[in-house]
Amino acid sequence: MKEAVNNRAIRERSNKVLTIFLLLVLLVVVFLMSVIHTIQSDRRIPSEHAKIHDRSLRGSIISADGYTLSYSQKTYQAVIRGASIKPEKRELFIKFFSIYSGIPIKAIQERFTDKKGRLITGNIVLSKELNAKSAMQLKELAHKLRKMDVFQWVENGNGVKVLYGLDIIENGESRRFPLKDILSPTLGYVGDRQEGRYIRPQGKKGLERKYEEHITSKKNGYFQGKRDVIGTVIHDKNSMKIKRIDGLDLHLNIPLALQRHIEIMLDAMKTQLDADEIIVGVMKSDTGELLSLASSERFDPSHITQKDIPALNPKFAEYPYEAGSVLKPLTLSIALSHGVITPRTMINTENGKMKIGKFTIRDDDKFESLDAAGIIIHSSNIGSSKISWKLTGKEFRDGLLAFGVARPSGIDLSRDLPGSLKPLYLLNHELHRASTSYGYGMQITFAQLFKAYSAFNNGGIAVTPRIVSYLEDAKGNHYTLEPEVPDLHAIDPKTAQTVHDILIRVVQEGTGVKAKYPGLEIGGKTGTAHIARKGHYLREYHSSFYGFANDKEGNKYTIGVLVIKAKKYRKYFASLSAVPTFRNIVEILVDQNYLKPDPDASEQIATNEMLYQIEENEPSLPETPEDIETVANKPASSQVKPSSSTSKPKNTITDLFKLKEKPQQSQPKPYVEPVQQPLPVKDNNPHKLFEDLF
């Protein structure tokens, strides 16, 4: 009995000891886990060292005359911890923050309370889009507020007391377009690209997209070292600085002054013609340097609205259309190159009407016959068809491909559509070869035709249009990129000169007579083509004029004009829309000293009316590149020089907005035709202003 009692007592003592041991083990485990957790957790104890990040920026886009057209700047956000402000000094903080940030007091007060009107004790974002200047001022304010004892110590979740303050945090990079719609849509626009919590711009269209790889930021920098009690990095021998590497700057061939002159003119012509859009290009014929690439449909890339959506895609290389009669000089060139005709070869033009099966080809001016040159001068569809018939389908198609038809032009924009050309098995048939010879049944872009016509002013070489002159890094080093599509040897120099001379006659005596300018060599070809939709041709038109303007000092420019859907009565004829627009461009080139007419020229053009009307009260622009750099907050390189080899333009940018009337001049002398052409069958003056529909 006594033994049993002793055994039970022993077991009870053993259980107690075991329980105590297990409790001790558990306490030790809990202690160790707490220690490990404390070691691994962020207790927000200020570090002895600090790192200041300096994120790199996207490169700028700069005009040939030194104006910053697009640049990037850093954006910042202001953050405060609600509980860190002493209650009695909250209103003082709000008033000071409003003064420094420009945000109304009421708006700031609303950010300190939740939806139920309770004060927020956690983090409060006071502003997300501060520029560098505002951020710098607010950082100074944060320092002053600490001295004014506005902030109090706050215990964090780990029980550690921290003195929070006003934090100004770099949160992104924004793209700025200080001149609003100028040079759009060529410049393009950007969207947002997220890098963690940091937002960067990303090119979506135009130059911003095309050169994304080169102008995007390269490498972030930082400054690291020991910090003082308020977090400022101490500059000493142990601190380390890594310099950031920004993206390359784009320097354009396009001068802003010339571009703005042309854009204002296009706006006025668009109104006068009631057109949907007018696009033009001016290019050095021998180098491909674009001096202007302008559209009447523009937008502000910084504030894109719903109505801007149709204008976002640059039509220069993204709008294939049926060209019409501007393709006829290409057809003639191919035939001349193959030796199947000469400029004086006579062709029966069937009195202006010819049937091919069930299809009828008509000319507006009815001639029994015309020589090959006259077919271009009087824009005969029948004559152009018969010229194409002297070639095989393969010869004709290969010839068009040599000019760059149905091939990307190589212009440095985000998209460069190839257009279309009928396959060989169709071009072997006379009907298809005929319609293609005068610009129907195929599609081509403005940039492709623009490039093709440069061959007639450049010894047969079609040069690739180039918007960007060079790229520049922070050290001033220049880099050039070869065009993705090279220049094309379209035709031989002799053929190019022959067609060049014929295009001059088109202006002297044919459908382009309104493009004449005294003392300059002007040539080109008109085209007015129906717009097709859902397999049917509409009573809507593309009107175009492609050609060249040269002076005796060696300045040679290829110029293209495309008018889309001019709706004013009879203004859809290219001779009444595209040709006057071309003439206005020549006038601007002369006014800005890019072209210098021969002072000895005796021929004069009567201009009893203004070339175009300019709206009054236009907004003014900066007078100098330096003024605009102040606006941009990022100056262009002092090494930038105008790309034009001509003298400095004589007008300042604000002169563009002054109403300018052309002086009256004497009547032109009658033109003496160098080569006698057959007379029309009917009394139908071939020199009338209204060209044939094609």
TrEMBL record:
Protein name as it appears in the record: Penicillin-binding protein 2
Localization per Swiss-Prot or TrEMBL: Membrane
Annotated spans, Disordered: 633-694
Species annotation: Sulfurovum zhangzhouensis
Main location, first listed in the record: membrane
Cited Gene3D superfamilies: 3.30.450.330, DD-peptidase/beta-lactamase superfamily, Penicillin-binding protein 2a (Domain 2)
Bias (Basic and acidic residues) ranges: 684-694
Residue spans crossing the bilayer: 20-39
Organism superkingdom: Bacteria
Presence of keyword Hydrolase: yes
Penicillin-binding protein dimerisation domain location: 56-234
Domain Penicillin-binding protein transpeptidase: 280-587
PANTHER family, alphabetized: PEPTIDOGLYCAN D,D-TRANSPEPTIDASE, PEPTIDOGLYCAN D,D-TRANSPEPTIDASE FTSI
Compositional bias segments (type: Low complexity): 634-650
NAD recorded as keyword: no
Pfam families referenced in this protein's UniProt entry, alphabetically: PBP_dimer, Transpeptidase
Keywords: Carboxypeptidase, Hydrolase, Membrane, Protease, Transmembrane, Transmembrane helix
